[in-house]
Amino acid sequence: LSFWIIKFRHVFGQAVRNDQCYDDIRVSRVTWDSSFCAVNPKFVAIIIDASGGGAFLVLPLQKSGRIDKVYPTVCGHTGPVLDIDWCPHNDLVIASGSEDCTVMVWQIPENGLETPLSQPVVVLEGHSKRVGIVSWHPTARNVLLSAGCDNQIVIWNVGTGEAMINLEDMHPDVIFSVSWSRNGSLLCTACKDKKVRVIDPRKKRIVAEKDKAHEGARPMRAIFLADGNIFTTGFSRMSERQLALWKTDNMDEPICVQEMDSSNGVLLPFYDPDTNIVYLCGKGDSSIRYFEITDEAPFVHYLNTFSTKEPQRGMGYMPKRGLDVNKCEIARFYKLHERKCEPIIMTVPRKSDLFQDDLYPDTAGPDPALESEEWFAGKNGGPILISLKDGYVSAKSRDLKVVKTNVLESKPVTKAESISTVQKHASSQPSVKMEDKLEEVLREFKSLRDRVILQDRRIARLEEQVAKVAM
């Protein structure tokens, strides 16, 4: 076996002490196979049960212990939240998709929430059914993908609030997963029709597809690896859980397929491109299994299983720059129980205290390689890498600015914008005041309009339910 294998034979998993867990959290019970948790170097976000709408918690990482029942939430959705994703280029910005058919993008205050946050920076409307997947572009700023139960994929320019690309006739059934390639030029999807598709979103065409990638009826998952291959999880005809590896240029036959066990939880794959390790977390399982992917048979090498007593309801996965390199930490998971979130740390024990550069090749940093306009115009860029040698120090995140194309849909002005407006108009003081007043009126207008739209939808849904009951 290769050099890598020997190195990662000894990945050691360990749950943290009780006082480092986040306790007394009502983790969402909605039936949906997303991870329910998203983490970055500043915050852990967890979808929770919320009466009369949808909400999620955003906790600063250091805020472990018991979480007060009245701790403020992010609570602008009118239906349960199904998926959340932190922006890879701004640790204060998070997107959420919900049963209310909308995607919302939020800016979290630098030190976390002190009051409930119900006003998103932008509401993205375009899906006709619930939105189960949100995923930021890995290398272009402000590009966000959403996939809904209307079987559509929409790619948004968050900076203008516009739906730029709509992939509507590609999936005849529910989309189980969507994954960006390393430079974000392609997508791979897993669909209920048992096909895995590779899609060029800007050309709106299917580049490759595999029918019956896994023969079983239960949900599949498909993710891109750094070398362009695709890793899938699914079920065999006999309902055994499987994993498989595929070449995108020829998907007729898999590079390899492995049967795992006959549990029925969907396997959520988490991938580390720096070490080429895939961690598999089954929903409802009480273990994390990990495999190393190499160019040599058997290609997907089983490394180890980390087991606990309690089953997992969901799982968050920390980006590499949020890990403690001094402890030789190569992965950190945030495991959701029914009432708590428990960090699990994966380390490769080493005798030396020096920086282990073999464990930490340069990794994707927070700077985007492209602006959204460049990506939509056809340009590509791989991730901008950083060294973790002295640990990652986060720079101050810039405010997310949304400049709507239609002035009637203008958004709350961020501080930075108001300052620059004031400077520009220092000579014409009265017009500044007028503009501020206008901004405020427009802001109120937009907030009321959004609320009316959401309430309309909610009423329609309730009427449907009443009609069903009456029948």
From TrEMBL:
The gene is coro1cb. WD repeats lie at residues 74-108, 124-166, 168-209. Residues 431-465 form a coiled coil. The keyword Cytoplasm applies. This is Coronin. Residues 5-65 form the DUF1899 domain. The keyword Phosphoprotein applies. InterPro entries: Coronin, DUF1899, WD40/YVTN_repeat-like_dom_sf, WD40_repeat_CS, WD40_repeat_dom_sf, WD40_rpt. GO terms for molecular function: actin filament binding. PANTHER family: CORONIN, CORONIN-1B. Forms homooligomers, but does not form complexes with the other coronins. Interacts with Arp2/3 complex components, including ACTR2, ARPC1B and ARPC2. Binds actin.
